[in-house]
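The pair is quoted verbatim underneath.

:::
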Amino acid sequence: MAEPSLIRGYLTELSAQLPAPVVAELADGLDQARQYYVDQGLGPDAATRAALAEFGEPRVILAAFTRASPARRAARRLLATGPMVGACWGTALIMNRAWIWPIPAGARAVAGAALITVIVLLAGAAFSRHYRSAGRAAAAGCIGISALDATLLIAVAFVAPTVIWPVIVAVAASLARIAFSARTLRTVLAMR
C-alpha cells in the first residue's frame, strides 16, 4: 500500500523547510483532501495520489510559503526604511560635528563593519529562496540592527555636546525601529 509512504515522504520534504505547526496544518488539509477523494469513490492509493496532485509539488508549496514569510517581509521593510533612518542619523551627527567626538577609530570601524553585516543579513533574508534560512537571517538582522540603534542612542547620550532637533528625530526613528525589530523577532522566532 503506497498511501502512508507517499504522504510521509511528501510531509518529510516539507518539514525540512517549514515549521512544524505549518506542516501539521498541511498534513491535516492533505488528509481531508485524501478523504474527500475516498468519499468520491477512489481507492486509498488513487485518493492519496489525487490529494497530492491537488496540493502540488512540495517545491511549489515551499516557494509559496517562503514568498509569504514574515521574515522576508520584515527584512524588506527594514531595508526600505534603513536609508531614512540613516539620513536622520547622518544629519544629526553632521550637525553635532561627530568627527571630533572622542570615539576611537577602531570602534567606528567595528560599527561600520556591523552595519554592512546587518545589511547583508537583511538582504539575504529579503531575497532568500528558503523559508528557514530567511528566518535565521532576518532574526540575526533584527538583533543586529537593534544593537546598532542602541549603540547610537548610547553614544549620543554620552558624547553629543547638544541635543538639537535632528538628534531628537534620529532617536525617535531608532526607537521605532527597535520596537519594530523586537515585534518582528518574536514573530520570526515563533514561526521556527
